[in-house]
Amino acid sequence: MKVLVPVKRVVDYNVKVRVKSDGTGVDIANVKMSMNPFDEIAVEEAVRLKEKGVVTEVVAVSCGVAQCQETLRTAMAIGADRGILVECADELQPLAVAKLLKALVDQEQPGLVILGKQAIDDDCNQTGQMLAALADLPQATFASKVEVSADAAVVTREVDGGLETVRVSLPAVVTTDLRLNEPRYVTLPNIMKAKKKPLTTVKPADLGVDVAPRIKTLKVSEPPKRGAGVKVADVAALVEKLKNEAKVI
Ligand code: AMP
């Protein structure tokens, strides 16, 4: 069975992004970029399935600028067998990515697509669900455990009230939650090996997909600054402030 793993190049999670002065977005010039953390978990899970012998091939896909090749090489250093770059210099919104992935699902016919539950730059949490709808595949989102057999996957999901276990027939779409696994450390020999793995590049037009944005960002702004706190003398003073100042009790 083949697994397709979409990996997004995003601003590294350690970077504190700054809003552009004109409020049109965040400044990503000269900022460290990395693989979306949830996608690292997705690659790790796919590679573990391969190591267990359940999966035969892991294919990583990234949609975006030419530098996404680095993200694909990281996926291959974790253990993906090959990479596909859907090269596009324009902004790609989740619906466009889902359409591109749907076209690749038609081409590659994977038994499983494992995506991150959300990208940490746009926080959309949409692509996996949209792909499942477009490709008419069952979906199991926010997976914290995945068990795959020949024709089905049993997925434990993290929901508000606790854990939910669902069974989806394959092919299916799964999205990863933080506790699914801890991605392995990428070693230098594996980085070197990854350089030799096959990487193909296609354009959205080759896949017959119109990637024009459907959503317009009107304004991006910093969250309001938090005011300084105060120390109260005793519980009575606290209750008085909560009642009369904050008016929350
Ligand atoms: P989002 O819906 O934007 O929060 O993204 C959810 C997941 O979709 C990510 O964790 C990735 O697995 C996948 N994804 C989103 N955008 C891209 C992209 N440009 N290239 C590859 N995968 C993507």
UniProtKB/TrEMBL annotation:
Keyword check for Transport: yes
SUPFAM superfamilies in the record: Adenine nucleotide alpha hydrolases-like
UniProt cofactor(s): AMP
Gene3D superfamilies linked to this entry: HUPs
All copies of domain Electron transfer flavoprotein alpha/beta-subunit N-terminal, residue ranges: 23-211
GO biological process: carboxylic acid catabolic process
Organism domain of life: Bacteria
Coiled coil (UniProt feature): none
Subunit structure: Heterodimer of an alpha and a beta subunit.
PANTHER family per record: ELECTRON TRANSFER FLAVOPROTEIN BETA-SUBUNIT, ELECTRON TRANSFER FLAVOPROTEIN SUBUNIT BETA
The protein, known as: Electron transfer flavoprotein subunit beta
Organism: Ideonella livida
